[in-house]
Amino acid sequence: MTIAVTGATGQLGRKVIAGLKARGSQDVIALARSPEKGADLGISLREADYDRPETLGPALQGVDTLLLISSSEVGKRAAQHAAIIAAAKAAGVGRVVYTSILNADHNPISLAEEHRATEAALAESGLTVTLLRNGWYTENYASNAPMAVAHSAVLGSAGEGRISGASRDDYAAAAVEVLTGQGHAGRTYELAGDSAFTLSDLAAEIAAQSGADVVYKDLPVADYAKVLEGAGLAPGLAAAIAGWDAEVAKGALESDDTTLSRLIGRPTTPLAEVVKAALAG
Question: CA 245, CA 253: separation in Å to the nearest integer?
């Protein structure tokens, strides 16, 4: 079976490819906008640029299963995903595995809108599909641990909202299982970490591991967006991220679903381990 992975040079894509190689999967193809960035992957590389549909058909020739890792370009993803879904159908791809968002059908976070559009496009395509509705990566917050130590604060607008996050390693392991295992065709998996945390919990963990005085400072959404802009984010993206936090405060990313740990055959990675890795650099 030939497996192709989009976004292969990104953080999740690289972990999935490493997992497939560890499983002994021989026919794995890395798809990327800039294939030269994946020279170190040690597998076949093909150019696949969402914004250049003419690259997608050739990239998918002979592919049995496609892992469609959602694009990182918020605001463009629905159209980009529609292009590769159409190309997959035309190329005769047998199954598409898509990384969506937790509780995509009713998640209020604005980010979910493009995921819902993609899931609808997949349903309309007639392709065999597996949906991996991934919760938040713990690294989304924990990666800022060194900055939190430097400024003695974790900043956000999530209040005491609980986040059922898991690590990229956890989500990559789930993708590898679904790509190589049996019985996953046509399934939808809600994937969340075993233990939820608040940003206050994150600050306390950073403080405990670093020995620094780190606290969580909850900011109004507009103020947090201004902080993110000051850190170099574009105004639209800064506003979006702050808005996501506001939904987190209402429970948008909390789940008691343990499908992820059952799927990967082990507990999901604890917050402490992700913070430790972030502080180690």
Answer: 10
